[in-house]
Amino acid sequence: MARRCTPTTRPARRGPGLFEVDALRHHRLATVKLPPRVRCVSLHSKDLQRLQSLTRAQLIDSAPVCYPETRAWAQAAFLQRPAAQAIAYTSRRDDSARCLMLFEQRLPDPPLHVVPEERLSIGPRRSEVMALVRSLRLREI
After folding, report:
1. CA–CA separation, 22 vs 122, rounded Å?
2. If you average pLDDT over residues 43-58, what whole number do you get?
3. pLDDT of amino acid 16
4. What's the Cα-to-Cα distance from 31 to each of 50, 89, 98, 115, 118, rounded to whole Å?
5. pLDDT per residue over 89-137, tens digit each?
6. CA–CA separation, 7 vs 66, rounded Å?
7. At residue 131, what are phi and psi to the nearest 5 degrees?
8. Phi then psi for 49, rounded to 5 degrees?
C-alpha cells in the first residue's frame, strides 16, 4: 500500500526545552556570497502547478515519514537538469522565505565565500539569541 504524504502538525512540546548557553561560543552567524548567477530548478508553489500530480502539501509541508519521496523529487531535478546548480523552494516555516539547496559539484570551487562572520557568544548577537531563548521559554543551563 502506498503511503500518503500530507501536511502534518508538529506534536506539542512536553515541558520546557534546554538551552546550553556556553555552547554559543562554538556558533557563528555568517553571511555568504554565492556566485553572481546560480541556475536553479524552482520548486516554488507557482511552479509546482506545472507538475499536475505534485502539490506544495506533498513536497514542502509533508511529514518526516515522507522525506524519501521529497528526496526523490530533488534527485529527479538533479538528474533531469544537468545545468542546474541548485533547487529553489519555499520555506516550510515561513512562506515569505526562500531556500536554496546547492549542488556543490556543479558550482565553482569554492562554491561560496563567507563575507562577514559574527560570534553569537558576544555583543548584540548574544542578546538577540538570549531574547529568543527566553521568548521560547527554554530553560538556560
Report:
1. 11
2. 71
3. 62
4. 33, 20, 15, 6, 9
5. 887 777 777 888 889 899 888 888 888 888 999 889 999 999 999 998 8
6. 10
7. -65, -40
8. -60, -25
3-state secondary structure of 117: strand
Distances (CA, A) of 130 to 20, 47, 126, 133: 11, 38, 6, 5
- pLDDT for the residue 12: 47
Give the whole-angstrom CA distance, residue 93 versus residue 107: 27
pLDDT score, position 66: 75
DSSP-assigned letter for residue 113: E
Amino acid at 141: I
Residue type at position 66: C
C-alpha cell at 111: 562554491
Q: In whole angstroms, what is the distance from residue 13 CA to residue 81 CA? A: 41
